Every structure is written in structure tokens, then in C-alpha cells.
Amino acid sequence: MSRIAVYPGTFDPVTNGHLDLTDRGRTHFDRVIMAILRNEDKQPLFSVEERMDLLREAVTVWSNVEVDSFDGLLVDYARRIGATVILRGIRAASDFEYEMQMAMMNRKLAPELETVFLVPSEAYSYISSRLVREVARLGGSAEGLVPDNVVRALEDRFRG
Ligand code: PNS
């Protein structure tokens, strides 16, 4: 039976930290599904479809990584696709509380699903999508923070 891990997130936009985590995850599971949450209230920088395209381009070299989107509860989606693991990253202690809360809630909702935390390379520990958006919006370079296709998409978004 293949072990499927779902890596859920907003990915607005995907960063090199997300990709580092995915690369680590894909060596431990048969398939990693990066799943973008659809029903966010806040106004995103990139639409779900744009984010999915950017993600797909960024993970194209990894044959066991797929990109999808979901609505509603993560645990319902995970069950639907046959995932047994929820993959999340912890960059620093400040991530811990929020991640623990989500992991506990997801365990309450679906005890058979295991949340697995991975730690990205320290080179990416300070990177977040929110800061990348802010830097790009204010004219800074996102080079080295996000994959090249996202650097171009950010330039287009803020110059265009
Ligand atoms: O990248 P993010 O914004 O930290 O990802 C948050 C995400 C998408 C993993 C989380 O908001 C989520 O799983 N939302 C789906 C709704 C849900 O299942 N909520 C209850 C469990 S906490």
C-alpha cells in the first residue's frame, strides 16, 4: 500500500522553505500531495489557480509530488485521497503553538491521521509567504526566497 502524505497550506506564494520541506517529505513517503486551501476569507495575492500553476512548475522535477486544492476540512480531504499523514513544517518555536493546536484538532476529528512535523533547512527558517509578499510589494528582490518562476510572477504582479 502506498503511503500518501498531504502537505496542506495557503502557499501564497510557495517559498523555497515549502519546497525544502516537500523534498524532505517525499523521501519518506511514496506520494506527497501539496494541497492549497480554497476557502480562505482573506484576499490572496495569487488566485488558487495561479498558485497551483506556480506550484506545479516548481515541483515538476519530483515525480512523487502532486499539487491539488481542497475545500472544507483538511481531514475530510485527507481521507478522500487516502492520505495517512499530514505534513507540516516547524521553522522556529514561534510556529509550535499554532501547529500543535491544529494537529490536536485534526487528531480529535480524525484519530487515524498522523501529523508529522519536519524542520526545513536553517537557510530558510526566516522565510514566510507573508514576508515575501511584503518585500516584493515594497520593491525588494525575492531572489533566493522563492523559486525562479515565483520571482517572475511577483515582479509581474507588482510592476504590472
Ligand atoms: O499555510 P497555512 O495558512 O499555515 O495553512 C493553514 C491550513 C490550510 C493548513 C489550515 O488552515 C487548514 O487545514 N484549513 C482547513 C480547515 C480545517 O480543516 N480546519 C480545522 C482543523 S485546524
Keyword list:
160 residues; alpha/beta; five-stranded parallel sheet; 6 helices; 5 strands; 18% strand; globular; binds 4'-phosphopantetheine
Question: Would you write up a description of this structure?
Answer:
- There is one protein chain.
- The longest helix has 17 residues, at 93-109.
- 42% of the residues lie in helices and 18% in strands.
- It is an alpha/beta fold.
- It starts with a strand and ends with a helix.
- It has helices at residues 16-26, 48-58, 74-81, 93-109, 129-137, 148-159, and strands at 4-9, 31-37, 65-70, 85-89, 114-118.
- The relative contact order is 0.21.
- Bound molecules: 4'-phosphopantetheine.
- 4'-phosphopantetheine is lined by residues 8-10, 37, 73-74, 102, 105-106.
Question: Summed up, what is this model?
Answer:
This protein is α/β, with parallel strands linked by helices.
How many H/I helices? 6
DSSP strand content = 15-25%
How would you characterize the largest beta sheet? 5 strands, parallel
Structural class: alpha/beta
Assign an overall shape. Answer: globular
Question: What secondary-structure arrangement, pairings included, does this model have?
Answer:
Elements: E1 4-9, H1 16-26, E2 31-37, H2 48-58, E3 65-70, H3 74-81, E4 85-89, H4 93-109, E5 114-118, H5 129-137, H6 148-159
